[in-house]
TrEMBL record:
GO terms for molecular function: transmembrane signaling receptor activity; triacyl lipopeptide binding. The lineage of its organism: Eukaryota, Metazoa, Chordata, Craniata, Vertebrata. Residues 646-789 form the TIR domain. Keywords: Disulfide bond, Glycoprotein, Immunity, Inflammatory response, Innate immunity, Leucine-rich repeat, Membrane, Receptor, Repeat, Signal, Transmembrane, Transmembrane helix. Cooperates with LY96 to mediate the innate immune response to bacterial lipoproteins and other microbial cell wall components. Cooperates with TLR1 or TLR6 to mediate the innate immune response to bacterial lipoproteins or lipopeptides. Acts via MYD88 and TRAF6, leading to NF-kappa-B activation, cytokine secretion and the inflammatory response. Belongs to the Toll-like receptor family. This is Toll-like receptor 2. It comes from Carassius auratus. The keyword Magnesium does not apply. GO terms for biological process: inflammatory response; innate immune response; toll-like receptor signaling pathway. Its main location: membrane. GO terms for cellular component: plasma membrane; receptor complex.
Amino acid sequence: MIRGGQMRLLGTEESITIFILILAQGFHYSRTCVCDQQYFCNCSSNHLQQVPKVPANALGLDLSFNQIKSIHMNDLSPYSELKTLNLHKNKLKFIHKDAFKSQHKLEVLDLSLNNLKNLSSSWFHELNSLQQLNLAGNPYPTLGPAPIFQSLLNLRTLRVGSPSLREVYKNGLDGLTHLDEMTFIASNLKSYENGSLKAARPIGLVSLNLQNLFQNDPELVSEVLQDVSHPETLLIINDAVLKTNISTEPFKAAREGGTKSLSFQNSTTTDEAMTSLLMVMDGSSLSYIGLENVHLIGQGWWQKASYTHYENLHTAYIRNLEIQGFFKFSSMMQLGFLLVHLHKVSVINGTVFVIPRQTTPLLKNLEYLDLSQNLLSDLTIEPTLYTDYGAYQNLNTLNVSQNILKSLGLISRLATKLKSLRYLDLSHNSFVSMPESCSWPATLRFLNLSSTKLRKMTPCLPSSLTALDLSENDLMVFNQRFPQLTMLILTGNRFMKLPHGELFPRLQNLLIQRNALRMFNGSDLKRFKSLQYLEASNNNFVCSCEFVSFFRHDVNHFITIRDGLHNYVCDTPFTLRGDAVDSVSLSVFECYMIPAVLVLCSLIIIVLGLIVVTCYKFHIIWYLQMTKAWIQAKRKPAVGQLAEELRYDAFVSYSQHDAEWVEEILVPELESAHPPFALCLHKRDFQPGRWIVDNIIDSIEKSHRTLFVLSEHFVTSEWCRYELDFSHFRIVDEHNDSAVLVLLEPIEKETIPKRFCKLRKIMNSRTYLEWPEDEEKRREFWSNLKAALQKDE
């Protein structure tokens, strides 16, 4: 029972675990698929084992490089909007017959490199819009006899076959009227039914990968070539091994089919096989021969085919040709029977270091010559471009880019002899500098000097150019006039501003990306009278207000930006670095800093002026000073209440204009009284060198009373006001009756300035003595004054 219970519990835990794993796997699918704004979902390389869930409106679904083994009927049914489905490099073994039933809009389907051992026509019944189908690399041994492709009426590109393919039968290609390109892989083919690869109309490009069949079963290859050869078809032979005469026999079918274009890619051949091929194709309408990634075993001795006729052969394209024993290769004189007919020759990355001088006269009909990515140098370029005896008399295009040329002057001198030259590509050489003057053919219109390490422009360049490419150099200044130039490419230099537009009256296209441009404006663009298109992204733009405003609102009035406004980003100021110029928003202060600062400073000055005027009018500074002095006085120890520290009976506060009355009448009368009064006068008793305010405060605090001699002069004296205010502070703080007022002359209260508010309060709240004009009343005045100055008991 216990064991059984344990087993049942364990089963429950396993079920829960499996359920959680399934949920986690579902979430994993949703996380690993990334869908962009174009509704393309990328689920590639995520170890998926089934079709994940993506938005139902997805237009593209990339499931390549996963581990999906089967596609069931409903796996793709939610995605009826799909136009592209990529299942390349999975482990597909099974596809339900109705798996693609809902994909009516599907245009591209890739099922290559899976484990499909059988192809079913039912997969494609509903794929009426399919244009590209890739079934290559699956291990199905048979193609046909069912009409697999019959329903794909809009199919344009088909890739089919693998090394596992053994038998091919008619399969429905003969009903396809739009097929433009087909790749057929069958390196181990054993059986082929005639007509199996023949479409309803000639296919534009047919690529065949039959490898050793040329050597092992040439008759089978002939049957295939018979179906695909046509004057309108470019025939590409991949991975072929052509070493003997037997291996070239199948090309009789190509000749009989009228093949005009024949190319060999990733193949191996010998002198014997090439000679035999030329003899087999003798008299054909062949006009194009291509050799790409071909390994040649031999020395170019093809004289046995010198009697052949290739008057129609106009183009030879050779790229990445590897010649075993290259330095034993002959001077090509024995190939004269081919060279005399050629109009276009490309020998790219073929370790060519020279064309012998005796060979160039054979190139009288040559119009196009591409010798890029080779080993031409200043020593070998001169015999290569030897022009005597009519050589190169029709040459209009010359490409010697990516060689090891160093002298631009030498090239210009040699080019001058090419009387028909219009296009010259000298890019990716190491010229470094230009001579001051050069000679060029008058016919030259296009010159490419990109990536040639140039540091300075000189008048060397021809003014007849209509297109000039100076990209990826180290140029900073452009000052040569080109009256015919319509396109100028300056990408990847060090220009800090646009070149002067007056130099290019007909310029229509200017490319100046990845330089050191800081900004440009309408006046810069107006100088270009004919400029239509500008590409100036990826520069170090200073996002000033003028530039941002011009770029956002006005630039399209002058030209068309073709490289995307979002690629124009700010470099400075630092706070805007990396922001797109057309999305930047600057404040008024940032845009008009100097006027804003002037306005701000003006406002500050005005406000300060108003403050000064206000302070002056309302005596605010005076009040502040008084407050400060009073606060300081408040912090001192309270000594006024100690009788022994009161030295004076009264501190006399008066205006200097009333000094005569005070000194000659008031002081003698009081100080000669019995008992005499001790008076404190600022003129006599203030401590020299001490701040006057401190003297006033100290004198008031050491006096029993403060005697104010009031007059018109008093109310206009600032120091009298200080003394009055400090006395008022004392009255309020100490709650005593220390102020005594003597009115020396009549004063109307209304005439007292507002700043003497304390005086108004004291006069309203206290009795004051008036100095009588009548001498008979003065005795009473002195008596009352002395009584007021008496010390409190």
